[in-house]
Each structure stands twice: as C-alpha cells, then as structure tokens.
C-alpha cells in the first residue's frame, strides 16, 4: 500500500520516533539459566509426549515404521486419508494400503472429511515434546484438519530445546521459505468450560509421532 | 461520579454478593493457581524467565519504530499488506473495506482482544457480514451477546449447566452435562463456518521483526483453521506487540503459556508471514496486517508508564487480583478487566469517565508480583490516581473533604480531638439505636460488613496508660 493511502502511518511513526528519543529505565536483574539443559533428548522427548498426550512410537527401521503407521490406521474409521507427497512417505505407502482412498498433497489440500493425515515435520523438540511443521509439510490444513495426525520423523530431526529449534529454523531458512510454521505440542484441546481438559477441540484428537532411529 | 463509575459500583455490588458466580470464579482460579504453581516448577529459574521477558519487551518497545519498520518491510517483501491505524475507527474502516472489496459474507474469528477493543464485529455485522467467534469461550459469550469475561478464558463465569442450556436454546442441541459432548457440539457447528467463510481474522500474540511474521497461540486449533482455510487472512494487533527476533519466542512462548494457563507450552504456536506462496498447497490468497495505535503511542510518550506496553496479555494479574475475584470480569465494563485494564483503560478511554477503575484497588501488589514482564502494576494505579487528580476530574465536595482531612491530620492536637469526637459521636448515635440507619455516618461501610464495637480509648490513651506516660 502506498503511503498516500495510509496517512496515519507517518503520524504514528512520528509520535513513536519522538517518544523513543528518550529510553525508559530498564529493570535490571540476574540473567540466569531459564531451564535446566536437556541431557538425553530421546528420553526427554518420550517423557514429554506422554505428558502432553502425544502418542510416540520409536521404530528401528522403515519396515517397523510402516508397521507402526499401519497399526494406527487400523484403528481409524473408514474413509479417505491424506499424505504429504514426499519420497519418505511414498516409500512407506505399503502401510497406507488397506483399501481406503489416499490423497497426496500434490493433488491439493486435504478434504474436510479426511480421517487421518500423514506428514513429515521440520523438527522435533525434546524439551517440550513438540513437533515443528511448516506449510512444506503438506500445507497448512494437512496438520490440523483431520481427527488423527500422524507425523513420521527421523532421529536426526530431534533437537534438545526451543533455543536449538530456532537455531535450526534460521540455519535452514524455515521461516523465510514458508508462509506458515507451527510448533505443535500435543493434540487439540480446550479447558474453556469449568477448566476441564477436553481433547479434540477443532484440531486433531490424536497426534502420533513415529520416530525412526535407524535406516 | 461518572456514569461509568456509578454503573461499575452497581455491578460490583451485585456480583460480589452473587454466591453462585463467586463459586464458579473461585473454582476456575483455584484450578489456574494449581496449574501455574506446577508449571513454574518446570523452570530452573523463574526469575530469569521474567527478566528475559522484560529484556525482550523493553528492547522492542524502546525501539518501536525500528522494529515495526523492519517487520513491515519483510511482510511487504512477501506480498502482504500492512495498514497503520491511528484509531479503532480507522482499523474498522480498513477491514470493512477489504471485506467489501471481496464480497465477504462470513468471517471466522480467532481470539483477538484488539478486535474487542475496537468493536470490530459490531461494525462488520452492520454491513450485513456474519461474524463467527471460533474460540470455544468466545463462541459461548458471543451466543450470549456478552463481551469476553476474561482475556484468556472468556467464558470463565459459566458452568456446564449454563453452556448446555445455551447450546440447546441457540443451536438446538440436545441438553447434556458432559463437557466432551459440549465441545463436540461446538466443533461440529463451527466446522461448516470455517469452510464457508471468505475471511479469517486473527490477533497476534507477538509480531516478529526479523522474520516479518506474527504468531498466535491457541490450544483448540481454531486459530489455525481461521488462518488456513478462508481466502483472506486479516491479522489485527497493537503496535506494542513487536519483538526483535524469532528466537525471543524460546523465552516468551513457555513463559506466556505458564502464566496464561499453567501449561509448559501452548498446544499450537503458529507463525504466519503472508499469503499462500507459489508451490504451497493451500493458504489464503491475501494477507493483511492492521497495526493499531489507538492511544498506545501516547502511552509510549509517557516515560513513567511506558512499560505498561510490555504487557503480553497473559491474564496473570487478573487472576491474582482480589478485586477481580470478587466482582468478576463484566463489572469493569471495559475490554481489559483486572489490574492491567484498570491501568490501561482510564488512559485509553479518559480519566473523566474511567478514573474509578484506578481507584478500585486495594494496592496489595499481587498483580505486580505475578507479572511475567515485571510491570509495576500497582504503582501505575497510583500514577493514574495522581494524574486524574491533576486533571481536576474529581468533584468539589471531594476536594473540600480531602482539604479538611489534611488540615485535621497535620496537627497532633486536632487529630486527637477529632478522634475523640468521632468515637463519642458514634457511641451516642449507636446508643440511641440508630446504628445502620441513614443517620449512622458509618452506614456506607457497615451495610455490607460487621464493624467491631467502638473502643472507649484511643491507641494513644492505651499507650500512655501502659507506659506510664502522662
């Protein structure tokens, strides 16, 4: 928008510039360590997943990962599933083949009625048991629309803490390459009625991480 | 007293004697306190977290021009639009224009307190646009035609019976006291709205200068759907929300979650920097950011109160406040309840009408103790009181009263005499059986409280007797 269409811009900026000529006093205090360092990321990730209600399955190789995904899908009601179109997931396609319709992200966004979505992720965070996804992981809706979201990740995607995940975001340009990035921690929930925790508000009721250590 | 002030007193009196309401609020805040207490134990050093949050917000607020321009440039490079609105009216107009240009008929909203502040939904509804709140708490209060009760938990004042009745009446749902079923009713109802709305409106918890992105924090996923499915995404936020760097969120996200709800981190922390890019599967076609001033730059110019702009809207001060715990969120009659609102609203809306909010506090300082960004809230309440007096907003009778009080207090002899006179007069009045009647000068205080009997002797008399001083 040209500044002519928005004369308030200069007025607001003018007032801000005049105000910040003088800096406000700073409250000084000790700058200690906020969090104890994460020593065993895999153990911590599993512990945090259990606490935030993410189903984490650690697998040794591709065959075990395919079996783990097939096992989850067996509990999902009939209907279409959606998957991020990525070579890693194409390699696991045997796991999805139980006769149900499958839609790849290359065919467009998921249908609203999708029963489950399967995506990769940008990183996993041990400190909080979180999954970092971006629009590159099958789009924005791929990681929120269905009642079940399955994430397939490799061990080298696991970082110890939030500081480390932001270092990775900068290093790999995740925030500049994508219009959308989301740090997911557990499945969708609400406590808006009497502070009672209910799973599955508007997003997935189940979040499953299949974390492959080898292969 | 102003009309708003009288209304405040009336509602405060009504709500503080509503035992059902107090029970619900007490239950909610007890749950919150337990969660936050547990949440803080996850930190190796909570004071370090507060210090870092203060440092980040201080840096952003004290270099606001630099970081806002950096943010704006990045958003524009990515094809987004940034509009600067001096007033709520300008912000409303801009968003309504965008909606009109695209023939928008339905808007889905995720939580935004700024949209409440500028009364956006009402303006859009006037244009014939359907505006649907999608946060469960917001959805509930919208169905009740109420403003949010609390900035984090908008329906904190309702129990499941009330929600069930509401869903039955407004949505035709079968009555149920099962909370998961109540949530499921809202999910099913709102799903069709996410997919039929042309525009999604969100707020922003932070805007990040170096990334040109903004972030919203939600648990339900409604914020994600609102900004992923509709064709247009409008993000509405105050200019003070800017932070310098993306990695600042490694500090702010867990701290906001802890003081907001007691969670280690909120379920969905979403970063958005624009519309759908080439090669992306989905996302909106247009992305607009509306930066709202609406009095904030004046607050910035006040060095004494500038730090009020550090607020990250976590709600901790509201939950800690004994005034809020007794009168609830609606009695304040403003967008932001509790201590932060009692500091902010008189500044934004004018001392003349709203100074009473700064006076309605015991100045106990519980708010300052819990603030994750170190805002000295109770001192700012005092600053507001002083500033209101300097503006001459108080009545002639109040001025005279304070003058007389000062005159009495400035001399030990006068103090002694009036103390004796007061005790005597009360004894006589009460002795005549006039206690609690309109002739009782203590009536305004004692009508809701039991006062102890007036002692015959003052502290000074007792002291003299015990120490043998004559």
Descriptive account of the structure:
In chain A, helix 4 links the parallel strand 2 and strand 3. The termini of chain A are far apart. Chain A has 215 residues and is of the alpha/beta class. Chain A contains 6 helices and 12 strands. Chain B is of the alpha/beta class and 470 residues long. In chain B, 54% of the residues lie in helices and 10% in strands. Chain B has 23 helices and 10 strands. In chain B, the strands form 2 sheets. In chain B, strands 1-10-7-4-2-3 form a 6-stranded parallel sheet, sandwiched between helices. In chain B, strand 5 (206-208) and strand 6 (213-218) form a beta hairpin. In chain B, helix 1 (3-16) runs parallel beside helix 17 (351-359) and helix 16 (338-349) runs antiparallel to helix 17. Chains A and B meet through helix 1, helix 2, helix 5, strand 9 and strand 10 of A and helix 2, helix 3, helix 4, strand 1 and helix 8 of B. Strand 9 (180-184) of chain A pairs antiparallel with strand 9 (268-272) of chain B, so a sheet runs across the interface.
């Amino acid at each position: 928008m040209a500044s002519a269409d928005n004369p308030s811009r200069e007025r607001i900026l003018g007032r801000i510039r005049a105000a910040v000529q003088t800096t406000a006093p700073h409250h000084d205090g000790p700058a200690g360590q906020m969090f104890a360092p994460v020593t065993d990321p895999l153990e911590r990730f599993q512990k945090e997943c259990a606490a935030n209600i993410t189903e984490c399955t650690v697998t040794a190789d591709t065959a075990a990962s395919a079996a783990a995904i097939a096992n989850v899908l067996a509990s999902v009601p009939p209907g279409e599933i959606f998957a991020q179109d990525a070579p890693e997931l194409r390699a696991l396609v045997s796991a999805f083949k139980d006769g149900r319709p499958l839609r790849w992200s290359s065919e467009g966004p998921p249908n609203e009625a999708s029963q489950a979505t399967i995506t990769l992720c940008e990183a996993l965070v041990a400190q909080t048991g979180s999954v970092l996804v971006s629009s590159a992981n099958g789009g924005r809706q791929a990681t929120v629309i269905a009642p079940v979201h399955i994430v397939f990740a490799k061990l080298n995607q696991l970082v110890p803490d939030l500081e480390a995940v932001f270092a990775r975001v900068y290093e790999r340009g995740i925030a500049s390459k994508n219009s959308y990035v989301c740090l997911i921690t557990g499945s969708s929930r609400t406590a808006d009625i009497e502070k009672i925790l209910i799973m599955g508000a508007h997003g997935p009721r189940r979040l499953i991480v299949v974390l492959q250590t080898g292969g | 007293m102003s009309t708003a002030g009288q209304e405040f007193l009336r509602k405060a009196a009504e709500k503080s004697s509503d035992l059902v309401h107090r029970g619900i609020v007490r239950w909610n805040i007890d749950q919150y306190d337990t969660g936050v207490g547990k949440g803080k134990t996850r930190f190796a050093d909570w004071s370090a977290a507060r210090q870092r949050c203060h440092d980040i917000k201080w840096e952003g607020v004290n270099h606001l021009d630099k970081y806002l321009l950096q943010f704006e440039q990045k958003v524009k490079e990515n094809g987004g639009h940034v509009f600067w609105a001096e007033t709520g009216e300008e912000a409303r107009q801009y968003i309504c224009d965008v909606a009109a240009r695209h023939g928008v008929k339905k808007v889905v909203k995720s939580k935004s307190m700024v949209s409440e502040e500028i009364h956006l939904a009402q303006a859009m509804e006037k244009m014939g646009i359907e505006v649907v709140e999608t946060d469960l708490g917001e959805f509930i209060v919208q169905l009740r035609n109420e403003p949010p009760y609390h900035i984090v938990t908008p329906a904190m004042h309702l129990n499941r019976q009330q929600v069930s009745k509401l869903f039955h009446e407004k949505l035709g749902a079968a009555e149920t006291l099962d909370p998961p079923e109540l949530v499921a009713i809202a999910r099913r109802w709102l799903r069709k709205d996410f997919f039929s709305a042309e525009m999604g409106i969100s707020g922003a918890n932070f805007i990040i200068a170096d990334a040109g992105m903004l972030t919203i924090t939600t648990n339900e996923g409604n914020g994600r759907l609102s900004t992923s499915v509709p064709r247009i995404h409008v993000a509405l936020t105050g200019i003070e929300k800017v932070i310098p760097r993306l990695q600042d969120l490694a500090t702010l996200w867990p701290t906001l979650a802890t003081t907001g709800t007691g969670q280690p981190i909120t379920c969905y922390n979403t970063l958005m920097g624009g519309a759908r890019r080439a090669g992306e599967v989905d996302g909106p076609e247009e992305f607009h950011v509306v930066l709202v001033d609406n009095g904030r730059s004046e607050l910035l110019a006040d060095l004494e109160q500038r730090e009020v702009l550090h607020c990250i809207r976590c709600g901790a001060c509201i939950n800690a406040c004994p005034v809020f715990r007794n009168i609830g969120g609606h009695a304040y009659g403003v967008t932001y309840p509790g201590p932060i609102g009692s500091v902010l609203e008189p500044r934004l809306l004018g001392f003349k009408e709203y100074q009473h909010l700064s006076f309605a506090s015991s100045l106990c300082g519980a708010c300052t103790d819990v603030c994750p960004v170190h805002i000295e809230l109770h001192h700012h309440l005092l600053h507001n009181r002083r500033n209101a007096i300097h503006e001459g907003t108080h009545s002639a009778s109040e001025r005279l009263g304070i003058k007389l009080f000062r005159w009495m207090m400035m001399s030990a002899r006068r103090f002694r005499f009036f103390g004796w006179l007061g005790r005597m007069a009360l004894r006589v009045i009460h002795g005549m059986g006039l206690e609690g009647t309109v002739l009782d000068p203590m009536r305004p205080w004692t009508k809701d409280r039991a006062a102890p009997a007036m002692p015959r002797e003052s502290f000074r008399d007792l002291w003299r007797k015990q120490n043998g001083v004559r």
